[in-house]
Batch of 2 targets.
Target 1
Amino acid sequence: MGRKRWLSFVAGLCGVAFALAAPALAKDTIKIGVYLPMTGAVAAYGQMEWDGIQIANEIKPTVLGKKIELVLVDTKSDKIEAANAVSRLVEKEKVVGILGEAISGNTMAGNPISEAAKIVSVSPTATNPLVTQGKRYAFRACFIDPFQGEVAARFAVNELKAKTAAVIIDIAQDYCVGLANFFVKEFVKLGGKVVSTTYIQTGDQDFSAQLSSVQATNPDIIYAPNYYTEDALMAKQARDLGINVPILTGDGAQADELIKIGGEAVEEMYFTAHFNKEAASTELAKEYIKRFEAKKGKEADAFGALGADAYFLLVEAIEKAGSTDGDKIREAMVAIKNFPAVSGLISMQEDGNPIKSMVINKVKDGKFVYVTTVNP
Amino acid sequence: MTINIFLQQVINGISLGSLYALVAIGYTMVYGILRLINFAHGDLLMVAAYTAIYAVTLFSLPWQVSFPLVMVLTGLFGILLDRVAYKPLREAPRISLLISAIGASFLLENLAIVLIGGVPKSFPRPDVFAKVIDLWGLRVQVLTVYMPLLTMALLLGLLYIVHRTKVGKAMRAASKDFETTRLMGINLDRIIAVTFFLGSSLAAAGGMMWAMKYPQVNPFMGVIPGLKAFIAAVLGGIGNIVGAVVGGFILGLGEILIVALFPQMAQYRDAFAFTVLILVLLFRPTGIMGEPITDKT
């Protein structure tokens, strides 16, 4: 290809990109921004949540008599991109509310920007306590890590009869570090002993060194509250090394990719989670699951359900506020009590965190199955 | 640490090291001939892994057929890469080539995202390799046994080509002096194509091994192996094929042992690799087995 043709090719590409990015000019719409990891290390979360948000938008497409327009920006699973995405949604797209991000670290990068602009944001699944701490306009649709870590520790002691635990922490993720801390605190309080603490990093693929040293300490369980890719690779390498103790992890495990990548190695992996189809009870949940499965041709998952809940909570707050003013939406949000959402009853607290129940799931025969529900 | 655990860690290290070595050979080879650091080399790993997935799942070829096939296809892809990204710049300053290489790397990664999507895919690992054998209490994956053997076999094959064949002779000549080699009537483009073919098929072997060991394939899977292989190549003496293998093993073992001996430092394993790079560049820029710097640029 000659240089000229190359140039025109590149110019053509840019043209297409601009055409795609051109804002819709309709005036009778209310814009809700969505920033999620559609590519990168945690892309599976973003894509599941986006699926859920789209279904929720189908169920409730209007608010205040206007059509809701969703504006999606990809964060590429990256903190800096997440912050840029929020800036863009606030400044260029002029959204009235924001949904996202999927993981804690990225949400904490995005929240200060929406906070400064006094725009309400609802993260579907950022569970680290710091996400909403000291913030006025930041909310979430999921429970927070202290609860998750505690429940995991109680489950390990009471149900799995564990006396010793090895903890493997993804040091690069606020979520993983937080969860591990809360688990260790509760586990020790209940008389357990942590015999080994080792670290990994998001994107690492080789955990054999950490696992070999874990093996030397012979723990009753491994608590590895990391994300699905690391969970799957780690389980695989653990089983290959002959480590057969139960592995317990957090809600970050619940992506189909865990099973696709982990295969047999993730069988009997336990995790604390936000949602299981079998435990769903509200009318909204039934409607959502029906539509989701008809439209997407797969089982309704937790991340999709929470994406939908974040949407429903935000729309409910806008409706109740009767306005698109950030402060009014915020006041309406904290007033939400016993809202029958997809993942169960949600009551929003003043601090931006909801009160809701948790389920424990495990992997069995290549599926996520429901074990039990824990109430707050 | 008991002796058993230590041995287990050494095995872990050798297995990781042989992967680095495999990728580093191709890296160093292209550098040796063209004086080009092919930053897109790591992304060829990714291209190969995806090609293998499609060969095995979509066209349901048995892995015995598809793996060599993927090596050939990736080799041809390497030639294409050279034609598009590097050949037009043969006469340009080295820095343009380097920039073009970085561009090619980003292009491949983003193309993969657009075409395939960002969600990781699982790699169809043949059962033969997935088996785990118990050697006096040490748990060794069959793949771990094959990997160093394969690395050695490919290394010997490559050494044979470079030192015993006509093409190899031409490659060595080109690496010494481009212009004079051309004046001697050697078709340089052909020699460069062969170099890219060999280098890329080695990347393919590395990519498939990598994907079998860590069965999670995504558009960015080549970035870290590419960087580590680059460091291994520099450590061994960039341009030196045996050096690349030595560098790969040192890096792999070093990384594993740092985690094994200082578990609290596990998050610094990448930092370890980069520290090695800095130290080598500071104190022995030509690496362990590199030739002394001459006035050739």
Target 2
Amino acid sequence: MAEASTQTIHDVVCGFCGLGCDDLTVEVEGRAVRVRGEACPEAVRLFTRLDVDDRPVSVAGDPASLDEAIEAARRILSEARAPLIGGLGTDMAGAGALVDLAVRFGGVLDHYASDGLFRNYAAAQRTGWLAATLAEVRNRCDVLLVVGEDPSAIWGRLFERFFPADPLFAGKPRKVVFLGGAPGEKAKVQLGGADVSHIATSDPVAVLEALGGFTAGRVPPGTSFGGVAVEALAALADKLRTAHYAVVTWNAATLDDGDLVAERATALVDTLNVTTRAGVFPLGGRDNLIGVNQLMLWRLGYPLRTAVRGQQSVHDGALYATQAALGDADVLVWVSAFRPEPPPEFAGKLIALAHPETVFEREPDVLIPVGTPGVDHAGTVFRMDSIVSLPLGALRVATLPSVAEAVRRIAEG
Amino acid sequence: MRLRLKGGRVLDPANGENGVATGSARDIEILDGRIVAPTDQRADAEYDVGGDVVMAGGIDLHSHIAGGKMNLARLLMQEDRRAYPEMPGNFCGCGGGRAVPTAHATGCRYAELGYTTVFEPAMVGSNARGAHLEMADIPNLDTGAYLVLGNDDFFQRLLAAGAGQEQVNAYVGWMIEATQAFAIKIVNPGGINAFKFNARKMDLDEANPHYGTTPRKVLTTLIRAVTELGLPHPIHLHGCNLGVPGNDETTLATIAAAEGRRLHLTHLQFHSYGTEGDKRFSSSAARIAELVNANPNISVDVGQVMFGQTVTASADYMSQYRNRGIASPKKSIGMDIELDAACGVVPFEYRDKSFVNALQWAIGLELFLLVEDPWRIFLTTDHPNGGPFTTYPHLIRLLMDRDFRNAQLATLNKAAQAHTMLSQITREYSLEEIAILTRAAPARILGLKDKGHLGAGAVADIAVHTEDADREAMFSKARFVFKNGRLIVKDGVVVELAQGTTHVARPAFDRGIETEMDRWFDAAVGLKAKHFRVADGELRNGAGPTILKCEGVAP
């Protein structure tokens, strides 16, 4: 009987890591959900649902009705002096509702994964940059420079998406240079058809800076940079200069000097474009980070890390970063619908709109378990390149409210 | 709900009515959001407009109000946002900005000027869902978007393979439906694509380095496609060589290339440059206006340059990359996008003491004043590229008041003054002509039968302006604006927020193309075609689009 009721859904869109894979196969049996076939471990983990009862709504640790929790949340926010609306792991509808909430009650808005984004903005807002989107990388990129650790650990299908078997324009073999950590087994398999090399360094900033010089035709004084011999750098510069379309990619979140890597990579790509074509492809974007940031820009004119108070908004990338803002906040509204991301340590009042499997160090003052976009309800998320957005479908009948529903009810009263 | 506007001087060129000229006043009656024939029934509300000028709500057919490039511009130009914070008032708690205002500010500022409908002229297909999400957050305006086509690799491949027009039409129809678009825009035909293969310029008959296709072929094929699909709006063309001195020849050749078929040339000012004079930069407005006058199939909007800080944002990455060296402040963003198009964002400050900028200003005004038929020229600044839309009242005064125009001209770069014939042009626009440029004509060229006029059956989008000899003051603040019969602006201040609709066109096409689209998206784009498609329910927070049937127009 159980097998007869199993439903197989094809071409499921995954909204978790920001890569936007949309070809997953998922089995749904009652309330249980599991991934079948090819998928990355992150998707397998986060799509998996057991057929269990919903975690109850609670107020001060005691089970409560949703109405009671909504009322309690509204009361806390009404009395709040400086709320921080954090986490922001939600779809576009949820993000819109949370901006409305900030307009109504005031508050700082930041996403839990925005560190990498703002390291990139250190370059993008000062000098700008020249970028490419996923389909351009797939089809044009003939030389890919991967800075930092092998990103396959986080984006399990990245190189499969970057390098399909038959790109439209890039000749074979496509060249991939890992600058920093060595490629792991998964990357090697996915890059099977490519000419893969590795340049070890613990100082990618120094290497990129020297590389920029070589690419521009200058020979920087010295015999090695970041532990890399000038001969190797000159050869790499030559590879980039003679590429038809070079791409530099990095994950600023995991790089100690992510802001400097972003800045140097941007400068390198700028230099390359004088004579050939090239683009940056910064990695990031988990849990709709990019989408929430996009919405902030068109709704408030500012990116994340913006405070809304008295119908005015103010942006400060340092002051309104979650960790700094927590120091001033008396209420934390923690939103994480995609994954059981726990809230940061915080002594003030805690309202959690959270994935039902979230483990809290202390009971939230208000806990409203919420459904996951793309599992429990439909929604929209942005891919990491900030251009493409994807529709998430519902895989099962929702019993938990979406972030948008819950937040709208809090804001309504 | 029945409303009555009492005693207005009705200016409704689409229906041949000019209460300003005749001095006669009459009532306008609204029932449930639409204009109806006047009755003597009791109204739920009456507004005494006391002889003020009553016009249909303004329609802007080319203003960049949504889409990824605007967000890139916001990100890049935080200075603009900080310099223009939220305006006080209950309805302006969500944003500010001038060159790239927020969605909320865009809706509010346009409404205050008396506009109720604005079209985004460059929606990239791969960004369509995001653009529609953003448009849904613009209050008080109906919107719509033109899909950028012609530089996409699918289309280029079709052309290169010598595909039949039927197949092209099917593809264009599929793309319009999938992206919920209203019209087709071509930006630098083939040039954006060529830049991805490292070409740095593209003339009308130059071959794409990879496909061998030419801009002329792109243009003529897509003109045929929109004609045969029956789309009401002609191809909306941002031509080759934007901003390049000497591009007048390209523009003249482009008009000829249309071979008598309908074609709309957008931001013509940026495409009307000659190479005469010791600075090798001159006005070709007179030559181009003459050809526009002689070719009734051609319509244009100006893209007037207005002095001050702005941000230029365009799908024309090739041109924007070329211009990035003159960015002010010195930073810019560019992006190659999804085998589809691209974008470039370059901040720019137009300075009245600059020879080039001052001459650009004069060229735009020359075009406005030398193109004779007000039904074929439209008032735009290509917001924000030539300047923010909030400068429209100033522009209207420049057009209506020769003394004011000449006084402004006298303050500009001296060499530029010597290179323009502007001071000799005596034409002054009438109020009726302004109403044509900003209401009646855009509705007609967009095929919006129930907009841009005040006849029975029209959507009750209405602007009431108190006449003032200072036309800038007159058009800066509407006394009343009604959106679908709801009062949204009173005495120049937004008093209510209305949710607009999004206009889309739905041509019929051969659905046999779908299999091919599925294959293309799977193999090349790496995204399922069905996920690329934007569903009706994704528009306007679930309200869906307002659908225009494509019945065609006389070619």
